[in-house]
């Protein structure tokens, strides 16, 4: 293994100085490791705390202190319409019209709400096509929805796996599976970016193939939002859901969101209803008979959890300033840089295989060939915060808003140290 040269640190610092997004690093709090900051590469799991969040939270507790219930109508951001504080930013980040997005609930709740509206199986058209190895919660949501309709799981759910020896799905295989099941397909449900492999799916092609057989296309954007460019409206995606605590930095359990394409707004689709989705002008008449609001807001159930929305608001302000285009440009370079450094440490792939394909966001998944857990623990001990996925994957997320090229070089250096230390320890015990 070759020693990372002092040169690469100097080179990384030059790249950092030229980075137009570098100023945003100081807008976030980094966890500590001893007397320095930890090397944080876990933005795919929980994004960092924006410094402005504490101030925005204080504004709302002050509002509560000052106005009590009147806070719903008074002050800087009246709580009655607080959810609209998020609309413009979410529309921009997802490539949607403002009427197509809403901040509400949690991801899995929103997935159930969307499946209730968009998965309406008939005896001919009932199949769901999804990726094998989907996130557990998504799989549970799909399974339970299929059972709610009284259908058999094995006949209804079609899961697509990578080819033998491969770790990513080929778009051609996804499209041909959809075509193969043709008019029996009710719904194609994929993630935007696969949480385990980091693969960024071809949303436009998958959506088109679904529509070609007369099915709906829905996406779980948990790992895609704030990470990769999205054009949900133009691509004709029927619905999408996401959580906000990963690349969006909205904080643990942050308020999630949903997208419903404009073409479905006038259809009065069946749905699970709540008072916050009811027509605003007579919501407080409290009468029976649900009339949904136009657009995505018509899927809201409850009034908005204002306190928990504040961190997301702080983060979205940063996204607006930085812009998804610049974020994506840096992301491609930063993740590519990380890949180059890791590859140079282990050119023969004796220790790990990077299973994340080149269609990806800010993530690399390292399939560890031996001693994965020990290597991961060594890194953790040295102040790297990354993510371990059973049985043998380390996920690294170089988040472009707050990670630097220097972070990546330092990580590479520690990875080299980890491989050496674990090999040495094994020799001793041999
Ligand atoms: C993170 C994540 C979830 C988490 O669901 P919550 O309802 O927010 O707890 C679900 N699905 C995917 C694909 C995820 O990446």
How would you portray this structure in words?
The chain is α/β, with parallel strands linked by helices and 430 residues long. The protein folds into 2 domains: 9-49 and 323-429, Aspartate Aminotransferase, domain 1 (Alpha-Beta Complex), CATH 3.90.1150; 55-321, Type I PLP-dependent aspartate aminotransferase-like (Major domain) (Aspartate Aminotransferase, domain 2, 3-Layer(aba) Sandwich), CATH 3.40.640.10. The chain contains 12 helices and 17 strands. The chain has helices at residues 6-18, 52-67, 87-94, 107-118, 136-148, 153-156, 171-181, 203-212, 306-322, 324-345, 372-381, 405-429; strands at 28-29, 32-33, 36-37, 39-40, 49-50, 101-103, 127-131, 157-160, 185-191, 216-220, 239-242, 257-260, 352-354, 364-368, 384-385, 387-389, 393-396. Strands 6-12-11-10-9-7-8 form a 7-stranded mixed beta sheet, sandwiched between helices. Strands 13-14-17-16 form a 4-stranded antiparallel beta sheet, covered by helices on one side. The protein has a two-stranded antiparallel ribbon with strand order 1-5. The longest helix is centred in the last third of the chain and has 25 residues, at 405-429. The chain is globular, with a radius of gyration of 23 Å. The two termini are 21 Å apart. Pyridoxal-5'-phosphate is lined by residues 106-108, 135, 137-138, 191, 195, 220, 222-223, 243. Pyridoxal-5'-phosphate binds next to α4 and α5.
């Amino acid at each position: 293994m070759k020693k990372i040269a002092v040169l690469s640190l100097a080179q990384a610092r030059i790249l950092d100085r030229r980075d137009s997004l570098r100023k945003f690093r100081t807008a976030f709090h980094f966890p500590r490791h001893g007397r320095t900051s930890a090397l944080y590469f876990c933005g795919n799991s929980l994004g960092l705390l924006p410094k402005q969040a504490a101030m925005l939270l204080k504004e709302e507790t002050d509002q509560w202190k000052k106005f009590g219930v009147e806070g719903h109508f008074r002050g800087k951001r009246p709580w009655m319409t607080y959810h609209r504080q998020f609309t413009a930013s979410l529309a921009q980040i997802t490539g949607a019209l403002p009427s197509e997005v809403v901040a509400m609930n949690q991801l899995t709740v929103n997935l159930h709400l969307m499946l209730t509206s968009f998965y309406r199986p008939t005896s001919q058209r009932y199949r769901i096509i999804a990726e094998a190895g989907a996130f557990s919660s998504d799989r549970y949501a799909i399974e339970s929805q299929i059972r709610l309709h009284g259908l058999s799981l094995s006949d209804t759910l079609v899961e697509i796996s990578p080819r033998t020896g491969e770790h990513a799905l080929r778009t051609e295989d996804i499209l041909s599976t959809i075509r193969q099941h043709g008019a029996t397909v009710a719904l194609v449900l994929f993630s935007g970016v696969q949480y385990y492999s980091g693969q960024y799916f071809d949303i436009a092609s998958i959506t088109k193939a679904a529509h070609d057989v007369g099915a709906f296309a829905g996406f779980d954007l948990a790992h895609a939002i704030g990470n990769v460019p999205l054009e949900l409206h133009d691509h004709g995606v029927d619905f999408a859901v996401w959580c906000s605590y990963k690349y969006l930095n909205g904080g643990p359990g942050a308020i999630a969101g949903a997208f419903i394409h404009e073409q479905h707004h006038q259809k009065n689709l069946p749905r699970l209803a709540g008072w916050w989705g009811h027509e605003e002008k007579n919501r407080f008449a409290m009468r029976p008979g649900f009339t949904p609001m136009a657009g995505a807001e018509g899927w809201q159930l409850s009034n908005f959890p204002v306190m928990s929305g504040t961190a997301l608001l702080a983060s979205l302000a940063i996204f607006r300033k930085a812009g998804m285009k610049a974020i994506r440009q840096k992301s491609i370079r930063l993740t590519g840089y990380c890949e180059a450094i890791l590859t140079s440490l282990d050119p023969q792939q004796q220790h790990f295989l990077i299973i994340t394909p080149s269609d990806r966001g800010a993530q690399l998944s390292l399939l560890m060939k031996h001693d994965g857990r020990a290597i991961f623990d060594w890194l953790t001990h040295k102040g790297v915060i990354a993510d371990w996925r059973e049985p043998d994957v380390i996920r690294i997320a170089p988040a472009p808003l707050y990670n630097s090229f220097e972070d990546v070089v330092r990580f590479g250096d520690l990875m080299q140290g980890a491989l050496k230390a674990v090999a040495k320890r094994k020799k001793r015990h041999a």
